[in-house]
Amino acid sequence: MTIDWAHFLPFQALLGGALIGLSASLLLIINGQIAGISGITSRVLERLFPHKTEDPQTLTQLGLLDWRILFLLGLVSSPLLFAIINQLPLGYLHKASLPLSPSTESASVLNISLLISGGFLVGIGARLANGCTSGHGVCGLARLSKRSFVAVGCFITSAMLTLYVTRHLLTWI
Amino acid sequence: MKNHPFVALIAGAIFGLGLIISGMTNPDKIYGFLDIAGNWDPSLVIVLATAVSVSFVGVRLALIRIKKDPSFQCNLPTQQTITARLVLGSGLFGIGWAITGMCPGPVLVGLGLNYWPAFFIAPAMLAGLWVGGSNALKTV
């Protein structure tokens, strides 16, 4: 195994990671809430399409100014913030690695099916595990939670095995 | 519980900014981390370690606030047992994550970045999140 020095940007990783940690800390200290994206999104979905449980959080009125909705709004709007910051003379930021939209030729039936089934697995898996990379990975590990250590261990192992199969055996990715 | 919507908005924007700057919205960086058989991109480890370290301080401060401020309600998870549901869920999550190269945060930021795969992943992910909470699966 060799290090991919061509694509590894250590400064960006540190800065980005620190910002994520700052965000989670802000939300916990001020709002008293865990910055777990899957959990936040699930609660909003639950209010819109309830499963009719007796979970008190489900039955609480979710106004448009609910912290969850605003957090998600902030998340989706962050590219705008990035674009604004990119106007400043901070050269290093311009090297941030953004996702490149694949050409529309690559939108085959297989690829679209993979996006949909993969997305579904991310959703159902995170819901069952009660957390994802932000909830368990960032917040859970920061809280030294046993459950989160197990969750992170499991999803990283599962992901690495899956990628080995899809990239080196099936050559899909 | 105090709602603090403006703080939540800022926190969401900073979180997304962190994901973008660190490269975590780019599936190639995720694949690079997960591909231990190929050229390894350690970015994700650095991002996670840094995020956890900073959050660790945040957690300590929050715990101090819990002790000192009786009006502060902190919604911390209470469950401690490691369940089959946790392991199964994490396993499934990992498979989906490796296939798409995106987890929930990057998917939502990806919508804002006009990254077209996110427009397919997001609805499927929302469906999965919803199905995962169904009453039928409560006994898993």
How widely separated are the two ends of chain A?
19 Å
The biggest beta sheet of chain A, please?
none
The chain pair with the largest interface is: A-B, 120 and 119 residues
Q: Rough shape of chain B? A: globular
* Ends apart, CA distance between termini of chain B: 31 Å
| Average pLDDT rating of chain B | 95
Cα gyration radius of chain A (Å)? 19 Å
Low-confidence stretches of chain B: none
Strand segment count of chain A:
1
Tell me what portion of residues of chain B adopts beta-strand conformation: under 5%
Low-confidence stretches of chain A: none
Structural class of chain A: mainly alpha
Question: What is the string of helix and strand elements of chain B?
Answer: HHEHHHH
Largest sheet of chain B: none
Arithmetic mean of pLDDT of chain A: 90
Instruction: Quickly give the structural class of chain B.
Output: mainly alpha
Q: What features would you describe in this structure?
A:
The complex is a heterodimer of chains A (173) and B (140). Chain A is mostly helical and 173 residues long. Chain A contains 7 helices and 1 strand; from the N terminus they run E-H-H-H-H-H-H-H. Chain A has helices at 10-31, 37-48, 56-59, 67-85, 109-129, 133-142, 146-169, and one strand spanning 2-3. Chain A is globular. With 140 residues, chain B is mainly alpha-helical. In chain B, 56% of the residues are buried.
How are the secondary structure elements laid out?
The complex is a heterodimer of chains A (173) and B (140).
Chain A: E1 2-3, H1 10-31, H2 37-48, H3 56-59, H4 67-85, H5 109-129, H6 133-142, H7 146-169
Chain B: H1 5-22, H2 27-34, E1 39-40, H3 43-68, H4 84-100, H5 104-112, H6 116-132
Helix pairs in contact in B: 5-6
